[in-house]
Amino acid sequence: MKCLEDTVKFTETKEKDNKDVLILAIESSCDETAAAVVKNGREVLSNIISSQIDLHKLYGGVVPEIASRKHIEKINQVIEEALTSADVGFDDLDAIAVTYGPGLVGALLVGVAEAKAISYARNLPLVGVHHIEGHISANYIENKELEPPFICLVVSGGHTHLVRVEDYGEYVILGRTRDDAAGEAYDKVARAIGLGYPGGPKIDRLAKEGNPDAIVFPKAKIADAPYDFSFSGLKSAVLNYLNGCKMKGEQIVEADVAASFQKAVVDVLIEHAMLALKESGLDQFALAGGVASNSALRAAAETACRENGLRFYRPSPILCTDNAAMIGAAAYYEYQKGVRHGLDLNAVPNLKLGER
Ligand code: KG4
Ligand code: ZN
Hints:
By secondary structure, this protein is α/β, with parallel strands linked by helices. It has helices at residues 4-14, 53-57, 64-86, 105-122, 131-142, 182-193, 199-207, 232-248, 254-280, 295-308, 317-320, 325-336, and strands at residues 22-27, 32-39, 43-51, 95-101, 126-130, 150-155, 160-167, 170-176, 284-288, 311-313. Bound molecules: 5'-O-[(R)-(carboxyoxy)(hydroxy)phosphoryl]adenosine (KG4) and zinc ion. 5'-O-[(R)-(carboxyoxy)(hydroxy)phosphoryl]adenosine binds at residues 30, 156-158, 183, 186-187, 198-201, 204, 289-291, 293-294, 321-322.
């Protein structure tokens, strides 16, 4: 939603020619309360993340009500820290950016309300950002040479998207998961093996000690949709395997289960991504999202890119999981295009990529 009156007002008072653009970005879509100051979309002056993982761990996953409450407690402190460590004040800023979807509605609302309050109080333009666009844009921060078009595989706890990035802010979704997201499958399998939440990093670590060829788990292919994914069958296959072992009294080698499950996930992700690169004729591939910090996925992507003569990009692990620097990077390109949101901006829990 855009409010033209606000656009005009902010444009007149805040925009100057040939000047660095400083954006304060806020992210609160799930269980991280984060704020960052980003200069010209690619230079991170500060990146503060307050993680709630230890709290949600007790319940085996994110509890939405607790997440919202914690965001409220932390958000002012996180923003203050982001400004202080960037050594900037509100008056130095050109815009305020915030994730407004997709995500948990109560969690998103905290960031959106905060950003609107700052926008109003400080007369700063407001730029609402799509969370996935943020994940994709994390790649711009450390790879100054990366420009669209490229193919991006977005793999997180809530999303698994194969995206053709046409231009800044312009996306074509080639494929998506039909059921569980890749991160969700990691978390569920980790719980079944008894590793706890969040499972992704734990499976990643345990898999290093296991044999990826010990157990052959199915790799789902969807007829007529070569870029789509399905991970719920794989998750069930792992659960069936574990139950079968228990019933037969056979010993379960957790590291082998982790390594074999991970191989099935990574093989499918890379196969689909490489097909998209081949068919699109593009020569740049990027990973994004929490699962993009997975060591096996990063290694497999690197090898596949080398073998196919493609340039490979991925953010550092701290920029893969939820953070506000990626929101500031995405917001810069939206801001440059003239995108402004009004004070009627709302949280949109199921916001589609490319929608404004
Ligand atoms: O992007 P993110 O922080 O939040 C969402 O937008 O969902 O992703 C969190 C997800 C969780 O499912 C977590 O288990 C997974 O990313 N993850 C990993 C790794 N690090 C985080 N999955 C596999 N290997 C990892 N190293
Ligand atoms: Zn995320």
